[in-house]
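User: Run a structure prediction on this.
Assistant: Running it now.
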Amino acid sequence: MDDRLFRNAMGNFATGITVITTELDGKEHGMTANAFMSVSLNPKLVVISIGNQAKMLDYIKKAKKYAVSILAANQQEASMLFAGQIKDGQPYEFARLNGMPIIEAALVNLTCEVVAEHEAGDHTLFIGEVKEMKINENDPLLYFQGRYRDLDALQENITT
């Protein structure tokens, strides 16, 4: 099976977009990811998937904690910055939750302690127990077929 064909097929699953952050030795690190899901209500667990070639992998392995910011529709620039699509050289000003760096005004911010990690192919899954949570009202930033989407545009397509 062709890698590009598989990637295109998986791109047909619409997802939200997150920025995963952690802090190690006083330095903040972030990356954009859409491989995120809730796992358990009791205890409250979520999982993130980090590529084994990503710098973030070692940071989370050493820090044993991470934060997840589920991005709002107006936060595409933050997504692009942490995906390496924007390289402006300016340090990002993170907000803080439970001592962890987060994206201000995201739909949801979670701070997590790693309770398990599992290698799975070319990625590592980090299961985190949610320690703190903040929720804001807004529409989500979506990703579908390799492009950013928003609910307003989707609504217009449905009603026309």
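The chain has a mean pLDDT of 92.
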